[in-house]
């Protein structure tokens, strides 16, 4: 663990390979924002790190697995965590879980990669999630998307054409108005590790206008159903935003791990 004058703790893993010491940054915690950390103590008995500034003492669990990692490629690097391939979650390490602290096995997480098949209609917009949760300070790490198509083969997705591709704040990929050319496989990579893969098929035949009244009724019913789902999702989002706002107001001068 390394601390900064801004109250941040850098979680770093170290290992030895061929006699050389190597390290990697795993996570960054904003423990005492704006307050320098004056002292730290590690308790193996309680599995925690204690950090103190001039005004407070805080406890930070060493195994914050599910709360910090939602992808095998990051979870497996933490010596306190391991990836449960059956449940698809990061857990506190125990034998049988996937772990590769020194990053010695490149394909160790391949069996846990999310692979999905998606069918889209011509002109529809698609959102492909990256399945990776990273703190803001680690987001500059390269997350890249590749498209495998019949005509072009493997080529990287670039975001200099926002009318076609948009990168979301969580490194997902938004494809605008899909056509036949957008069909194929899409892979998302974090550095040299594959995060997820999608196989997209574009159904152009479903684009023709309905010819019978019952087809019109079915389409109208489907649109009404989607609109109701959208309204429900918006209400849920607004309710959560209101709850977060109230919680932030009540916790403005406290820290969730502060020891009173």
TrEMBL record:
<dbReference type="GO" id="GO:0045499">
    <property type="term" value="F:chemorepellent activity"/>
</dbReference>
<feature type="domain" description="Sema">
    <location>
        <begin position="1"/>
        <end position="62"/>
    </location>
</feature>
<dbReference type="GO" id="GO:0030215">
    <property type="term" value="F:semaphorin receptor binding"/>
</dbReference>
<protein>
    <recommendedName>
        <fullName>Sema domain-containing protein</fullName>
    </recommendedName>
</protein>
<dbReference type="InterPro" id="IPR036352">
    <property type="entry name" value="Semap_dom_sf"/>
</dbReference>
<keyword id="KW-0221">Differentiation</keyword>
<dbReference type="InterPro" id="IPR027231">
    <property type="entry name" value="Semaphorin"/>
</dbReference>
<dbReference type="GO" id="GO:0071526">
    <property type="term" value="P:semaphorin-plexin signaling pathway"/>
</dbReference>
<dbReference type="InterPro" id="IPR015943">
    <property type="entry name" value="WD40/YVTN_repeat-like_dom_sf"/>
</dbReference>
<dbReference type="GO" id="GO:0030335">
    <property type="term" value="P:positive regulation of cell migration"/>
</dbReference>
<dbReference type="InterPro" id="IPR001627">
    <property type="entry name" value="Semap_dom"/>
</dbReference>
<dbReference type="InterPro" id="IPR036179">
    <property type="entry name" value="Ig-like_dom_sf"/>
</dbReference>
<comment type="similarity">
    <text>Belongs to the semaphorin family.</text>
</comment>
<dbReference type="GO" id="GO:0005886">
    <property type="term" value="C:plasma membrane"/>
</dbReference>
<dbReference type="InterPro" id="IPR013783">
    <property type="entry name" value="Ig-like_fold"/>
</dbReference>
<dbReference type="GO" id="GO:0007411">
    <property type="term" value="P:axon guidance"/>
</dbReference>
């Amino acid at each position: 663990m390394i601390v900064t004058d801004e109250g941040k703790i850098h979680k770093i893993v170290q290992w030895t390979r061929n006699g050389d010491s190597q390290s990697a940054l795993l996570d960054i915690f904003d423990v005492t924002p704006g307050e320098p950390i004056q002292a730290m103590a590690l308790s193996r008995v309680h599995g925690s790190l204690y950090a103190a500034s001039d005004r407070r003492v805080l406890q930070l669990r060493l195994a914050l697995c599910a709360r910090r990692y939602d992808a095998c490629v990051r979870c497996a690097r933490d010596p306190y965590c391991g990836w449960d391939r059956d449940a698809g979650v990061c857990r506190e390490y125990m034998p049988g879980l996937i772990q590769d602290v020194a990053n010695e096995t490149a394909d160790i997480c391949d069996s846990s990669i999310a692979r999905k098949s998606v069918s889209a209609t011509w002109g529809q917009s698609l959102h492909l999630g990256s399945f990776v949760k990273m703190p803001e300070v680690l987001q500059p790490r390269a997350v890249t998307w590749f498209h495998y198509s019949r005509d072009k083969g493997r080529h990287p997705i670039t975001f200099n054409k926002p009318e076609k591709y948009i990168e979301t704040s969580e490194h997902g990929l938004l494809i605008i108005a899909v056509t036949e050319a957008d069909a194929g496989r899409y892979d998302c990579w974090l550095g040299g590790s594959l995060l997820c893969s999608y196989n997209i098929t574009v159904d152009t035949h479903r684009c023709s206008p309905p010819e019978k009244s019952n087809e019109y009724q079915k389409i109208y019913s489907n649109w009404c159903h989607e609109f109701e789902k959208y309204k429900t999702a918006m209400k849920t989002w607004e309710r959560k935003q209101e709850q977060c706002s109230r919680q932030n107001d009540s916790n403005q001068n406290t820290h969730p791990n502060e020891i009173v």
